[in-house]
Amino acid sequence: xxxxxxxxxxFQENDIRATFFVxxxxxxKYPDVIRLMDETGxxxxxxxxSHERLTELSEEDMLIQINKTxxxxxxxxxxxxxxxxxxxxxxxSSVRETVNYPLIMWxxxxxxxKLKDSKKIAEVILKNVKDGDVLLMHDIHDFTVEAxxxxxxxxxEQGYQFVTIDELAA
Length: 170
Fold this sequence. Notes:
This protein is mainly α. The protein has helices at about 5-15, 25-30, 30-40, 60-75, 95-100, 110-115, 120-130, 140-155, 165-170, and strands at about 20, 45, 110, 135. The protein is built from 9 helices and 4 strands; from the N terminus they run αβααβααβααβαα.
């Protein structure tokens, strides 16, 4: 989105890596940002092509959503991704059987999309974050990027490390 490059610059300055679950249609709009994500050591995951709720799609349409995003990533980076975050966290047996990638969820929803205030988002994170948490945040919002700038230095000072999904799994 519009604010992702700014966030990546902040990550670079502070030696922070994260995992971004991207929409294929956004990848097409921001190929340079996707390259920067990859170059800075961030992990890229699949979040469908157009943010469709997988549980409401046929198996064929689910695969189109996932495969189209991977194809766009391959055209830009020369590789796809091996992890998927289902939109809205919606998963059922059909999604589990159809999507042949690990389905990555979050342990802590910052509710940045609802709070819409960088200081409130930072406050919620600082009060609730625990070791090993996977935070759900949306870099499409300027208030989320500002919250990250507020909270990550404090968490780093408290000894937290910021890693990708693969690093956390290891």
